[in-house]
């Protein structure tokens, strides 16, 4: 959301969150590694590539970046000119044995997690079934572990996995659908699909209460755990992999009863009660959504919120980094206002300056 939907650009975020703080740090004798995974999957890939090329050299030399990405001309052509240095390890998809290391990585992953002497299948059998997908390898490992723990004898992998990952998605999403019912299935997965960032786990209890469901919250969490990952540090949930929502929202793959329509997921309806963490989440993302996708009436509502003392106070108290989210919202709404609304623009600018001062006082004193 920060990089794709905000007018607080990538360079500004880089300056505020990386360059300025790190420039004040003392020099370190040892290297620190930062991994940027799946660069090719970010919506603002072009801007981020330019940032890496032009701005990352400004960072301390003790900070080392390891970037993973599927092969792509845009990624390689920009990073090849990176200074002071960069090593391109991806090669070209036309080259012989291009995926050899990738295949070896999957085999190593399988060998580490499956005790093959205890099953009547080989690592080659499982690897062939994975079809080069680490995600499918993960699912196969989990299913095999569960089968072995229950004492089930496995002699034919096709008995557990009759098809490819598309068949796996179809079978297991149907299982979740039958377990939780249509309303919970559509509402829960619809919310996660359209959410710009991981949702608070409390969204599950909120949906269950709203739908007057008799389902136990933990049972629902267990049912969807194959596809949603629970992040314990901040008690949020999101999709295990981008392939999951991609399948759910593809009308050529997911059958009609399982299909999640993004437009339906973005529709709203009134509610009378909401969990505190969920309320903080909604407050954090609502401004961006209403400013960009709503009309003038929505923009007026957003302006009213951003000029409300209690709204600003609650957001500032919800976390140290929230000041950056609030500043980006103020800048976003200021840019959406008409040229003739100079008084409103000036007011938002004053609030931004005041909020920065208050935030410093709150978290340094």
UniProtKB/TrEMBL annotation:
* Annotated ranges, domain Nephrocystin 3-like N-terminal: 10-70
> Cross-referenced InterPro entries, in alphabetical order?
NPHP3-like_N
Q: Which domain of life is it from?
A: Eukaryota
Which Pfam families did the record assign? NPHP3_N
> What keywords appear on the UniProt entry?
Repeat
**Is the Repeat keyword given for this protein?**
yes
Question: What is this protein called in UniProt?
Answer: Nephrocystin 3-like N-terminal domain-containing protein
Q: Which organism is it from?
A: Pocillopora damicornis
